[in-house]
Amino acid sequence: MTAAEPHHRPWPTDLVFDRAARTLMIAFDDGATFEVPFELLRVESPSAENKGHGANVPPPVTGKANVNVVRAEPVGRYAVRIVFDDGHDTGLYSWDLLYDLGRDKDERLRIYRDTLRLRALRDEA
Question: Where are the alpha helices (DSSP H) in 1-125?
């Protein structure tokens, strides 16, 4: 790739919010397809509420195993705002973020669930 050639980022070709399965099915123009659980979308929300402000990192989001999506709204041509049934609606999910969440979902879910288990053990002690 030369400096004159722009880097092609995968572009979504299909987004299906399967409320019964609590999963976002998303396809990209590079052939990748992913099924992203709503729980992962919710706990990985890019909102300041989830990620914190500055150096203040909030504790992990809990109790979202059964969260559902109420609606999704396009934000320009670069993202989607997902509204969850727990009232959370401030995260803007860029296409790059959704691609990363789909590609890395197993690892991200493992880390999230391990964090919750360690927190529960710590709270019991």
Answer: 38-43, 48-51, 95-103, 105-124
- In the chain, the amino acid numbered 97 is L
Would you say 67 and 38 are in contact if contact means Cβ atoms under 8 Å apart? yes
| Angle at alpha carbon of residue 97, lines to 40 and 111, rounded to 5° | 40
What are the pLDDT digits (tens) for 85-107?
999 999 899 999 999 999 999 99
Give the type of residue at 104.
D
18-29 tens-digit pLDDT: 999 999 999 999
DSSP β-bridge partners for residue 81: 73, 92
Phi-psi region of 46 (alpha: psi -120 to 50; beta: other; left: phi over 0): alpha
Spatial strand order of the sheet with 33-37 comes to 12-18, 23-28, 33-37
